[in-house]
């Protein structure tokens, strides 16, 4: 059984798991949090064919099929992102409100467990980003993980005013194999720690978008003329001010 421990962060009581920066929950007047997990999926997703509640979607559907977010009926899966069947078809989603800001006055945790039906011919992005309708097309500000078409390497990125600090090949993505991607912004140290499957894989001290508030963001694009499916086991973001 996985163990849970506690510590105080900026006066808030935080619960953490496999490592001290994997925040599971936090309590206090200065805490803002979001969680998506299987038993909560219906709170965010409307009926089949409708947009998720509380999210701004951008959809591309040139090929056959539908690009959408689906509440999954598979045990242990919260959502499934699906693309239509043309290259660059897909869906991006941003949670309502630019409410997460890495400006030195806060600590921020973001984590997601995901898997996809294809390792190479798809693109994805998960993390925090400024409002944008084409997340993989050229963000100006954000902290995120991305995997691009034609490769299997996952990158960790901090980006401010379109200037990227990027660490490549943090993990080799494999089809139908779950991976946990996490980052932690430590406001006191003004740095971002990236983790893959619980192991620290990079630290960024540059490119942190400290002058912008960001939104929880995700995007899936097909990398070829075939529909793609990405499953989200859980996703969580906690900010402590």
Tell me the layout of helices and strands.
Blueprint: E1 5-9, E2 12-16, E3 23-27, E4 31-36, H1 41-44, E5 55-60, E6 68-71, E7 79-82, E8 90-95, E9 107-116, E10 122-129, E11 142-147, E12 153-160, E13 163-172, E14 179-186, E15 191-196, E16 199-204, E17 215-222, E18 229-240
Descriptive account of the structure:
The protein is mostly beta strands. It has a single domain (32-240), classed as Jelly Rolls (Sandwich). It has one helix and 18 strands. Strands 4, 6, 7, 9, 14, 15, 16 and 18 form an eight-stranded antiparallel β-sheet that branches. A seven-stranded antiparallel β-sheet has the order 5-8-17-10-11-12-13, with no helix packed on it. Strands 1-2-3 form a three-stranded antiparallel β-sheet, with no helix packed on it. The longest helix has 4 residues, at 41-44. The protein is globular. The two termini are 31 Å apart. The model has no long low-confidence stretch (mean pLDDT 93).
Tell me the structural class.
Answer: mainly beta
Please tell me how large the radius of gyration is.
17 Å
Give the CATH topology: Jelly Rolls
Biggest β-sheet, characterized?
A: 8 strands, antiparallel
Mean pLDDT: 93
Number of E-state strands: 18
Distance between the termini: 31 Å
Q: Can you tell me the residue ranges where pLDDT is under 50 for at least 5 consecutive residues?
A: none
Q: Estimate percent helicity.
A: under 10%
The helix-strand sequence is EEEEHEEEEEEEEEEEEEE
- Which architecture would the CATH scheme give at its second level? Sandwich
Roughly what fraction of the amino acids lie in strands? over 45%
Helix segment tally: 1
CATH class: Mainly Beta
Described by the principal axes of the CA atoms, the overall outline is globular
Overall domain count:
1
């Amino acid at each position: 059984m996985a163990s849970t421990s506690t510590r105080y962060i900026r006066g808030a009581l935080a619960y953490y798991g496999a490592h001290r920066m994997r925040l599971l929950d936090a309590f206090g007047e200065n805490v803002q949090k979001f969680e998506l997990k299987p038993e909560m999926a219906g709170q965010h997703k409307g009926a089949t064919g409708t947009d998720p509640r509380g999210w701004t979607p951008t959809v591309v559907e040139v090929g056959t099929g539908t690009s959408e977010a689906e509440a999954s009926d598979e045990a242990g899966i919260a959502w499934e992102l699906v693309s239509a069947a043309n290259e660059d078809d897909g869906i991006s989603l941003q949670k309502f409100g630019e409410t997460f800001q890495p400006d030195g006055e806060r600590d921020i945790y973001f984590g997601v467990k995901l898997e996809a039906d294809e390792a190479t011919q798809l693109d994805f992005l998960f993390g925090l980003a400024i409002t944008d309708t084409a997340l993989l097309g050229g963000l100006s500000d954000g902290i995120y993980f991305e995997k691009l078409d034609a490769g299997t390497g996952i990158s960790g990125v901090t980006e401010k005013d379109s200037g990227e600090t990027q660490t490549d090949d943090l993990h080799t993505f494999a089809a139908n194999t779950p991976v946990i991607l996490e980052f932690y912004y430590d406001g006191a140290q003004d740095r971002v720690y990236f983790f893959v499957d619980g192991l620290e894989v990079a630290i960024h001290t540059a490119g942190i978008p400290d002058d912008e508030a960001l939104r929880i963001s995700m995007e899936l694009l097909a990398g070829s003329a075939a529909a793609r499916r990405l499953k989200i086991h859980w996703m969580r973001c906690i900010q402590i001010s």
